[in-house]
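Run: sequence + pyridoxal-5'-phosphate -> complex structure.
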Amino acid sequence: MQSTADHLADVRSRIAAACNRCGRDPSEVVLLAVSKTFPAEVVREAVDAGQRVFAESRLQEAEPKIALLPGSLEWHFIGRIQRNKVRRLLPLFTMLHAVDSLRLAQFTDSVAAELGLFPKVLLQVDIGAEESKGGFDPDTLRAEIGALLELPRLQIDGLMCIPPAGPDAKSARPWFVALRTLRDELRARTGAPLDVLSMGMSGDYEVAIEEGATHVRVGSAIFGSRRYRVDGELGAPQTGA
Ligand SMILES: *Cc1c(COP(=O)(O)O)cnc(C)c1O
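>> structure
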């Protein structure tokens, strides 16, 4: 049986190979080990294998887990964000990946001001126009990007997407291209760098890297299959924080 360390080594070498294919430096790609549903002992195996950056999608699961692990780790929140959890999310997580409305962004900005924080956030885009998934509709984002970038506390570093489920890794490519293209358009219009593209999961992270992903969110390829699905189809956050 392969260990967590073996899986991690395999994922890292696939990331390096994908970077090679498209002339990128592997240091440009952050591997987020998605540890949702896995206990702290399993996360520790990944830590022992050198992994430092992890992602969780439910606050009530993440809080006790994070408390059991070394304070030197970096945690990203990739689940749907509920307003009543923002106050607890902000101090715990390095980056919130799924800010999905102007209203939520404004609210998060005001909580950040109260807490004296300048949180890094990404704007989730509903790139496949799927109602079940959160995210800005691209046209809404085009209309609201100015107001979003004016929020004084939020550091809006880029975009995130969870593309529609497809038959194979390649089927996600057009969605990754669409997210990058939208980013390029918003960057050209606003002058904001929006450098981060959070896209690619276990089934398609290599394709995502070829299309410009800076953060890949890989769970089952590292930790094995989850015993229960907290998040519904494709691991998309349906249940909220
Ligand atoms: C669960 C989850 C992932 C990881 O999915 P895997 O297919 O296990 O790699 C990535 N992104 C989000 C938003 C998730 O909820």
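>> summary
Strands lie at 30-34, 53-56, 74-77, 95-99, 120-125, 155-161, 196-198, 215-218. The pocket of pyridoxal-5'-phosphate is lined by residues 34, 36, 57, 78, 162, 201-203, 217-221, 231, 235, 237 (CB under 6 Å).
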